[in-house]
C-alpha cells in the first residue's frame, strides 16, 4: 500500500472500553498523517457540581463519576480535603482504606484483563464469543470480580458507588471478624491471579517498544495506592501540591476532554506500566516472583504487555489485602472529626488506570469554593494518540478491518475509562 | 407454581431517565415487594443465581414515546427493543450480560425485561415526568402480581 492513496481508520463506537469515544486515523500510503482520539465530555460537569457543596458531600458525589473506579474518586477527594483541613488519620483507618482500594483494583483489573482485553489476544470479537470456548477463564474472572466486590461492599456499604468512606475515616468500620471472613476468598483470588499471570503471559504481543515518560506515585516501602511522591523516569519528584506546576491541561479541537501534558515535554504514561516500572522493588515477593517467572521485568515498554502487568498487580492486590486482613485491628473511632476551616488541599492516588489528581478549596464553613479533577484517562489520552501514530504505521499495509481492530486493541492497552474522562467513544481509519 | 422470582431494577441514578429501572425497584421495595437494584451488568449474573424467573427493569431507547413501557421475554431470539441501543451507560450493557450468561449456561429459566422508554441520559439530569409516571405505573403493575400476599 505504498501508492500514496489516503485511507482512514475510523471506529465510530469503540467497543470494550468503559464509556464512549471515537478514533479517527488518516493514512497516506504507509504514512500516518493524522490521529485524533475524540472524547465527548459533559464539560467538567462534576467540578461545577461540587462548587457550593459541603466538603462532606464530595466523596459521594465524586464516586458517581465512574462505576468502575468509584473508590479512587473517593480516596483522592477524601485525602485532598483532609489535607485542606489538616486532619491526621488513625493508622488503622489508613490500612482499611488500602484494603478498600485493593478491592477496587481486583474488580477493575479482573474486568479488564479477562472481559475487555483477553478477547483481543485470543481472537474473539468479545467476551461473549470467548466464553463459549474459554468458559473456565470467564468463570474465573467473574469470581475474581465478585471477590473484589465483596471487599468493596464490606468497607463501602455497597458494591457500586460505595457510601461509607468519609472525610476523617469511615462512617462505619468492620469488625476483625468481618474482615477475616474475606480470607478464604482472597486466598483463592491470589491463586487465581498467579494463574492469570501465566495465562496472559502466553499471549502473542506485537513488537512495539516505546520510550515513555512514566509517571506514578512512589512510597518509601509500599507499592503505591493512596499516597506517595509523584515521580517519573525522567526526574520528576513532586508533592501533590506541586502537580499543577508541572502538568498542564490543554484544550484540543477534536475532543471535549482536556489533554494533559508535562510542561515543556509533552505526553506521558500513567497506570500499571508506570507503577510497575517505577515501583517493582516495592511489590511483595510473591508478585515480583510471578513477574520474573514469566520473564517480565522493568522497564516494560511494550504497552501490549500491560495485560501481564495488570495480572501481576492482581497478585499484588490479593496479597496486600491478605496481609491487611491479618494485621487488622479496628480503629478506636471510625473517624476523626472534620472541623471546617479555610484551606486548599491536593491529593493524588493510584486508580486502577493510573494517577487521579484532586484539588479542593474550602471556605470557613467547609463549603467547596473550587474543585479540580484530573482523571487517569485524560492524562493518558495524548499518549494513546502518540502510540497510535507509531502503531498505525506498522499496520497500515494490513486489510482495513484487521488494522482497525489492532488499533482498537492498542487503545484498550490503556484500559481507558472514557466515562471518567468523559462520556461516550467512536474509531475511523481513513485511507485516501 | 412460580418458583423463585427475582425482580432487578437496572440502571444509573445519575443519568436522567436511565434511573428508571432503579426507581421501579425502590418503589417496589416501598410497596413491600422484594426487589434488587443493580448498576453493574456483570453483577446481574450473580444477582439471578438460584432464581427460576427473573424480571429486569431498565430504560430503553426505541423511538417510542417517552414513558412507554415495553416488555420482552428473553428466549433464543434477540431482544428487539434493545437492538438500537448498542451503547449502554452501564459499561458492558444489559444485552451483553445476558448473552454472556447464555454462553456460560447461566441464564435462568425465564427472563422478562421491561423497558421504560427514555430520552434524557445526560449526567446529572433528573428523570423526566413521563418516566416517573411510567415508573409508578410499572411498579404498581408488578406489585399486583408479585406482592407476597398474592397466591
Short description:
The complex is a heterodimer of chains A (432) and B (151). In chain A, 45% of the residues lie in helices and 18% in strands.
Overview of this protein structure:
The complex is a heterodimer of chains A (432) and B (151). Chain A is built from 15 helices and 14 strands. Chain A is of the alpha+beta class and 432 residues long. Chain A has one domain (6-431): Cytochrome-c3 Hydrogenase, chain B (Orthogonal Bundle). In chain A, strands 1, 2, 3 and 14 form a 4-stranded mixed beta sheet that branches. In chain A, a hairpin with a 2-residue loop joins strand 4 (165-166) and strand 5. Chain A is globular, with a radius of gyration of 21 Å. Residues 419-427 of chain A have low confidence and may be disordered. Chain B is an alpha/beta fold. Chain B has one domain: HybD-like (Rossmann fold, 3-Layer(aba) Sandwich). Chain B has a 5-stranded mixed beta sheet with strand order 2-1-3-5-4, sandwiched between helices. In chain B, helix 1 packs across helix 4 and helix 2 crosses helix 3. Chain B is globular, with a radius of gyration of 14 Å. In chain B, 47% of the residues are buried. The chains are: A alpha+beta (432), B alpha/beta (151). Chain A binds chain B through residues 13, 18-20, 42, 45-46, 49, 64, 67-68, 111, 115, 126-129, 131-132, 135, 138-139, 142, 145-146, 149, 159-161, 419, 423-424, and chain B through 12-14, 38-40, 42-43, 45-46, 86-87, 89-92, 96, 99-100, 102-104, 122-124.
Amino acid at each position: 500500500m505504498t501508492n500514496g492513496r489516503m485511507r482512514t481508520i475510523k471506529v465510530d463506537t469503540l467497543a470494550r472500553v468503559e464509556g464512549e469515544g471515537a478514533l479517527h486515523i488518516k493514512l497516506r500510503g504507509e504514512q500516518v498523517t493524522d490521529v485524533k482520539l475524540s472524547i465527548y465530555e459533559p464539560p467538567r460537569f462534576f467540578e461545577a457540581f461540587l462548587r457550593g457543596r459541603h466538603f462532606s458531600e464530595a466523596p459521594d458525589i465524586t464516586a458517581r463519576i465512574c462505576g468502575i473506579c468509584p473508590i479512587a474518586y473517593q480516596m483522592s477527594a477524601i485525602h485532598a480535603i483532609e489535607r485542606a483541613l489538616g486532619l491526621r488519620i488513625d493508622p488503622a483507618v489508613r490500612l482499611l482504606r488500602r484494603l478498600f482500594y485493593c478491592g477496587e483494583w481486583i474488580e477493575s483489573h479482573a474486568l479488564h484483563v479477562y472481559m475487555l482485553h483477553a478477547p483481543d489476544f485470543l481472537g474473539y470479537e468479545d467476551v461473549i464469543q470467548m466464553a463459549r470456548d474459554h468458559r473456565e477463564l470467564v468463570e474465573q474472572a467473574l469470581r475474581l470480580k465478585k471477590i473484589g466486590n465483596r471487599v468493596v461492599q464490606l468497607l463501602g456499604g455497597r458494591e457500586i458507588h460505595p457510601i461509607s468512606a468519609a472525610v476523617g475515616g469511615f462512617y462505619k468500620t468492620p469488625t476483625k471478624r468481618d474482615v477475616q471472613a474475606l480470607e478464604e476468598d482472597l486466598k483463592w483470588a491470589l491463586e487465581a491471579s498467579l494463574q492469570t499471570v501465566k495465562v496472559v503471559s502466553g499471549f502473542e504481543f506485537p513488537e512495539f517498544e516505546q520510550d515513555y515518560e512514566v509517571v506514578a506515585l512512589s512510597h518509601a516501602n509500599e507499592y503505591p495506592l493512596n499516597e506517595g511522591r509523584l515521580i517519573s523516569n525522567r526526574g520528576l519528584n513532586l508533592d501533590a501540591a506541586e502537580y499543577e506546576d508541572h502538568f498542564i491541561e490543554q484544550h484540543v479541537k477534536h475532543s471535549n476532554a482536556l489533554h494533559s501534558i508535562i510542561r515543556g515535554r509533552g505526553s506521558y504514561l500513567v497506570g500499571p506500566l508506570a507503577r510497575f516500572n517505577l515501583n517493582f522493588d516495592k511489590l511483595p515477593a510473591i508478585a515480583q516472583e510471578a513477574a520474573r517467572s514469566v520473564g517480565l521485568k522493568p522497564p516494560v515498554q511494550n504497552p501490549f504487555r500491560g495485560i501481564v502487568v495488570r495480572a501481576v498487580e492482581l497478585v499484588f492486590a490479593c496479597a496486600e489485602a491478605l496481609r491487611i486482613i491479618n494485621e487488622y485491628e479496628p480503629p478506636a473511632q471510625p473517624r476523626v472529626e472534620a472541623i471546617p476551616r479555610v484551606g486548599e488541599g491536593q491529593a493524588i492516588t493510584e486508580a486502577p488506570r493510573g494517577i487521579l489528581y484532586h484539588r479542593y478549596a474550602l471556605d470557613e464553613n467547609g463549603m467547596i469554593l473550587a474543585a479540580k479533577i484530573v482523571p487517569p484517562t485524560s492524562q493518558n489520552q495524548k499518549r494513546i494518540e502518540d502510540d497510535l501514530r507509531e502503531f498505525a504505521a506498522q499496520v497500515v499495509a494490513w486489510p482495513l478491518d484487521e488494522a482497525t481492530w489492532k488499533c482498537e486493541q492498542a487503545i484498550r492497552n490503556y484500559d481507558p475509562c472514557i466515562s471518567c474522562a468523559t462520556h461516550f467513544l467512536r474509531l475511523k481509519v481513513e485511507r485516501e | 407454581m412460580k418458583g423463585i422470582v427475582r425482580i432487578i431494577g437496572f440502571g444509573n441514578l445519575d443519568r436522567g431517565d436511565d434511573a428508571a429501572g432503579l426507581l421501579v425497584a425502590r418503589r417496589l421495595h416501598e410497596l413491600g415487594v422484594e426487589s434488587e437494584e443493580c448498576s453493574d451488568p456483570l453483577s446481574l449474573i450473580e444477582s439471578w443465581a438460584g432464581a427460576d424467573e427473573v424480571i429486569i427493569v431498565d430504560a430503553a431507547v426505541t423511538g417510542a414515546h417517552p414513558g412507554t413501557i415495553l416488555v420482552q421475554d428473553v428466549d433464543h431470539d434477540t431482544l428487539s427493543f434493545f437492538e438500537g441501543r448498542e451503547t449502554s451507560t452501564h459499561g458492558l450493557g444489559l444485552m451483553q450480560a445476558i448473552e454472556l450468561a447464555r454462553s456460560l449456561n447461566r441464564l435462568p429459566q425465564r427472563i422478562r425485561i421491561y423497558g421504560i422508554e427514555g430520552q434524557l441520559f445526560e449526567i446529572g439530569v433528573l428523570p423526566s415526568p413521563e418516566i416517573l409516571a411510567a415508573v409508578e405505573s410499572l411498579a404498581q403493575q408488578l406489585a399486583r402480581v408479585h406482592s407476597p400476599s398474592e397466591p
